[in-house]
Amino acid sequence: xxxxxxxxxxxxxxxxxxxxxxxxxxxxxxxxxxxxxxxxxxxxxxxxxxxxxxxxxxxxxxxxxxxxxxxxxxxxxxxxxxxxxxxxxxxxxxxxxxxxxxxxxxxxxxxxxxxxxxxxxxxxxxxxxxxxxxxxxxxxxxxxxxxxxxxxxxxxxxxxxxxxxxxxxxxxxxxxxxxxxxxxxxxxxxxxxxxxxxxxxxxxxxxxxxxxxxxxxxxxxxxxxxxxxxxxxxxxxxxxxxxxxxxxxxxxxxxxxxxxxxxxxxxxxxxxxxxxxxxxxxxxxxxxxxxxxxxxxxxxxxxxxxxxxxxxxxxxxxxxxxxxxxxxxxxxxxxxxxxxxxxxxxxxxxxxxxxxxxxxxxxxxxxxxxxxxxxxxxxxxxxxxxxxxxxxxxxxxxxxxxxxxxxxxxxxxxxxxxxxxxxxxxxxxxxxxxxxxxxxxxxxxxxxxxxxxxxxxxxxxxxxxxxxxxxxxxxxxxxxxxxxxxxxxxxxxxxxxxxxxxxxxxxxxxxxxxxxxxxxxxxxxxxxxxxxxxxxxxxxxxxxxxxxxxxxxxxxxxxxxxxxxxxxxxxxxxxxxxxxxxxxxxxxxxxxxxxxxxxxxxxxxxxxxxxxxxxxxxxxxxxxxxxxxxxxxxxxxxxxxxxxxxxxxxxxxxxxxxxxxxxxxxxxxxxxxxxxxxxxxxxxxxxxxxxxxxxxxxxxxxxxxxxxxxxxxxxxxxxxxxxxxxxxxxxxxxxxxxxxxxxxxxxxxxxxxxxxxxxxxxxxxxxxxxxxxxxxxxxxxxxxxxxxxxxxxxxxxxxxxxxxxxxxxxxxxxxxxxxxxxxxxxxxxxxxxxxxxxxxxxxxxxxxxxxxxxxxxxxxxxxxxxxxxxxxxx
Length: 874
Fold this sequence. Notes:
- By secondary structure, the protein is α+β, with helices and mostly antiparallel strands.
- The chain is built from 18 helices and 48 strands.
- The strands form 13 sheets. Strands 9, 10, 11, 12, 13, 14 and 27 form a 7-stranded mixed beta sheet that branches.
- A hairpin with a 5-residue loop joins strand 34 and strand 35.
- Helix 12 crosses helix 17.
- The longest helix is centred in the middle third of the chain and has 14 residues, at 515-528.
- It is elongated.
């Protein structure tokens, strides 16, 4: 292949602006407007890499997003890098560094300095594609709507009109007229932009993609789609070769031949399938580039012609991916031998126009030819003559692979795609998809339309995660939520952990304390004095309406409609499969109003769960569920002296056990602010949870610290909270549960009503839910009281043969801590038939050795629960 720059032509390039860039370490030049591919061809570089599996030399095949071979890693002058882009779609610029790839991208190990943006656009009409059909559709739309309410996007970097958003590719069409699109380098200070578009009507004018014909050794550098050869001449002034063969099935190559002739390319042969002619093989030089073409015609012996360029046109496929994403149907059009839009999907009106609708200009008569059978030794391997018939260049997938898949009994084109990986590369089957379906149809003896094509899924082109995230990256990738007390925590040396999106204090180290030392000190304070914790992050949901009690009865496994106003109740939620989903305390504020709390990390999921059932299953219930997590600051005051501290900030509240019993709540003035006090304990100690409006949270915290100072009040974090609750056997949903855990497995069967229906009740009746060997929550006491089991450690029986695999497992450790109150280590675990194994011993095989444990009940501290009312233990 002898490519070169022409002295004239090239309407996309500016010959007055020379651009210097780097390719595989070498310095090259091109013109402004060149793509990497056109600049490489202009510099005589036609070999752009090796194929991903077979290491075959590969060249540039196309001039657009359908390119399967010319994949490059790009580093922009700004330092922003892209691990894998198509050289045919990336404009060159000064300082650009390009490296060829063998089908595999490489991620950077340093932080990407790229700046990406996001934009929203609402319009009456969205036109995708600014070719002649797209611009005509846009002009017609502007006759019926304001011009600024018609939005036109086009993937090409050059403007196709004054009101077109260039270099912008639609990624996907979703429900309700929602379209995402990606734009590269929209401004000098922005490396990319993600468009979120809402349209009342959508026009798809995305054109069509030329498809290849499969024959032996059809992957050599110098073999191109016919339209691409003309494009390089017309747009970039690049002659892709000197001696060309055109292999065609249709009339669109007539214009290609005229373009090549005008550019001085010698056309040594036109091989027309309509005349019974075919290319059966190609020859290559020492580097693998095409040097000759083997041609046959009906009734004649094969002949070989010398050529450095072979242009192929098997017809054109309308670009129907967006249409199919919008749930539009497709039909196979025999006239153009391609799938075209048929029935429109539900939702906003969507129309396909021009080539995207199957209107291929100049195609004339077409004789479909999908694959040319092997001829003699053309396969390169007499044992498998199809082994060099490449269907998908990007995946090195051949007709041999396709025949093997079908021979294995796969008949669904979706299954064939996954077996062969055809269509899973960067071009997503743009060139290979319909060809694969047609070859499969011939082998199966079916019509192409009956075989169909694999599902089109967004995005239509590859896009980086950084560009999808736009500004939501780095510290903004996951929004950080902090409580109103956060500044105090920071000032007092808290070590934080992420819980959901919240920053929660894990522990408050003093001086040079380790985490273990700090947690033990905090636990001692909670058990022997008074401690305080910021519990604002708990999910809080306001449930209101005449049917609120009925609704909660259906949501929770236990009953809430009978709960008295002023009282609280612990509740368990299950999914429809009967497995524990969440837990929390719900309080009745009024006859038609409840205050629900959820786990911190599950708050949004619980609200979504409530809304789903209200909207889809029980729309007749008069209930509203509203998140009030952000409206209330919550502070837990815990320990034997908790009553004394709360009395000092809420002097008007009777805190006696008789007046304010466990699991009740009261309105109160707290530190001068109207709020609520709940008698709830997640530690087993005497405890109160104080709720005030969020903006008063920090003031209340400081007031508690001040009045509690004489009593040695100690702030504690989530790690001490976990130790305290685990000593009491209180489970953490998501830690003591794994999505296969029922309330009965947790020993909470008493909370499962037998008198009412609730979500998941029917699943509890399945035989599997009553198996005696289900994993059940138990406690573990290591024989060595200093041995700390790692969470997740597996448990086996004492007589297990550890040398033989697999070793039968009894269960696993869910929580493990060192306890000041117990004076030893302990753990919680899920163990098969655990409650029938109390008193037995088991082994925890670890990398450092084997730890023996005793299986106990899950409540290891104050089993009589005397301490929750401030009484000393018996």
